[in-house]
What we know:
By secondary structure, this protein is of the alpha+beta class.
Amino acid sequence: MSKSISELIKEAENQFIELKEQFSEGVLKTISAFANTSGGIILIGVKDNKEVVGINLKVGEFEEIVNKIVDSLGFQPEIKLVSFNRKKLIRIDVQKSSIPIKYKGIYYKRVGNTTRGMNTDELSRFFRQDLRWERLTKPEFSIDDLDEETIKNFVSLGTSKGRLNLQNRNISTQVLLKMLGLIENEHFTNACILLFGKNPQQFFLGAKMRVVRLKDNITIIGDRWISGNLFKQYYETEEAIKSLINVRYEIKGFNREDIWDYPLPAIREGIANALIHRDYLEGRETQIKVYDDKIWFNNLGGLLDGVSLEELLSAHASKPRNPLIANIFYTAGIIESLGSGIDRMRSALKEQNLPEMKIEANHFEYLTKLGLNERQIKAVMYVKKSGKITNKEYQELTKISRQTATIDLSELTEKSIFIKIGKAGRGIAYELPKLTNN
């Protein structure tokens, strides 16, 4: 924003401009808000009514303000001492930050001309936007907390797959991780900690796998918790599942072939998907339930914003929730980066003459993200069970007026969650769009 001082003062305070009479804690909150939203400019020495009063600074006080900003936020905007109408002002130009900026433990955002702290739901959505959570750092995590054996195995895998080209095999660990985008501002990122830490659960308690063997929905006959970094979880989860399913042997020529209840390529894809696409802001473990006749993978976090279940089931581009983690798994040869995992699982099941797999979204979470109210979500669940709903049925289900029901149902139709069927009047009903697996 390259506006002059006079232009800034003439404008009313808005999403991008803040006027302050003097330096205070409010300035630090506003810098956090601008950095977390779309950037902006703060002028210190101007009243809310646009009267320019200037700011009187003692010797060294300007430097103290600069240091206060940097020390409090860990972030340095452009800070200048400027003159206007023979009075001194401080101008602070804040660019949108690539990582979230907090002040005293609170992340602020800019709403119109106000600065507000984010609540839990806003903070969760904020960390998900632009896929930035992976790039946040933990300064207390040191190089001694890295699992060198896991890093060594990763380099070996990536090199053998031709996906990691190192000119110098003796490259230092820090240079390698920085090259892979896993170090930000000389600190290790969340993605790095999860991938290569000795004990990521020290920082992310819920980042675990739980493999459960059930006889029915309530009778547990086997239970294993798996922790450690994501590479260890990937390999140990496969072994845990294999210990809970059957294998038979077929002799083909001079070779013996192991035939598992479920094809191992499909199991591996399911495990990788759960690790790569899970929402690590969720504090619960990822669960895999093994029954007599099926395996159930639960991926925490639901569908990504802007990705429908129909799109997921059809040919689609890869859009991982955690692209840094996905890239490392791709480099190691564990996954492909083409959004083809589901197709590979289907092919593996088909080759073994097993039934088609089923994919279900966490509908409540997904529909809440779409902005649906509780009544509308209740209607979707009703239609999922009964097949369709009429305006009158919706009124009875939610105890609302016909006018409100019409508005709600129209919104559901506009968002393509419902489609309208039948003739005008009482013959109209609403149902879910048909999803195809082709």
